[in-house]
Amino acid sequence: MRATTDTRNLDSGLPQAGGDPSGPSLSDPPPSDRSLSDRSLFASHPELSGSLQPTAGYHPDTGTTVPRRYVHRAALAEVFLTGIAPAGAGSYLVTAQWPRGHSLYGSRGGLLDPMLACETVRQTVPLLSHTVFDVPFGHMQSWDHISFGLDPDVMTAGSTPPEIEMRVRCHDTVLRGTRLIATSLDIMLFRDGDLLGAAGARFSCHTPAIYKRLRTGRADADPHLLMKDMPQLPPVAPPAVGRDRAEDVVLSPTERSDAWLLRVDPSHPILFDHPVDHAPGMLLLEAARQAAQAASPGNAVVLGLDSDFIRYVELDAPCLIEARALPADVRGRVRVQVTGTQNGAAAFTASVTTQPLAAA
What we know:
The protein is an alpha+beta fold.
């Protein structure tokens, strides 16, 4: 990978959206995968007692979110997850509530922003790491892969905050002794009881010492200092990438119509919720979304994304974002391959599926 989830500054292929509702199996995980007992979880994490449920099968009305440090967020308003419960060996029920309005991930054309699903999956990674696998705070989780596919019929913005339920299965878990090295997640997402889509993720965990070696002198560096010699890049026109505000545009124009420079603002309150020493994964996925929007005809909405993270995107060097058309999917929807290249090497790739907003 590389894009990490960082606590230092804080307290699989998918079915097509609307396809087989059974999705990934949530039963019979490999014997090496851990199961979570509510007794051990309550004992190890008493501060989560208001967000832990001893049984699955319903949406817990906890009236609160999980503590922010469990999802690696500084701002309380950016915490979406509300609860977690065991749901069989190696499987878990994770619940969330999405905001009706959001400064970055707001509704467009009457549809919820698909990046809400991506951020919810992102928050699930540290929550499971700290609760299920007892990963200490201060260790880093880094993405290797993330993907999702959503049903537009279940993405309609409503008059109440969407209640989200995720049925999560951990598999292909690698442990060194009792320490988590890596695991994969298969996730089915439900919105107010209706199947919203599916998601998948693979992530690794690093101790502070290992992360320091991986970052070769950059660990803990202030992003503003890392970028002090970088020019301030102008944004592309916000409507061209599906944005309303210039400050939310993460692409800067080049001489090519299919290529842009990554535009990084370490002061952005959402994409840089807290300081990190590299481009955050959600910034890269937003760049992929905006590039796919620019490369798609008309006003489009993202319905699917499949991304691999190869290496960290550094803040003190330009990163070129390129988009090229892929063959349409079986439903005739537009597909775009987005690649981020830095210092002559691919840093991340994303295959993005879009559909015209009016047809979604």
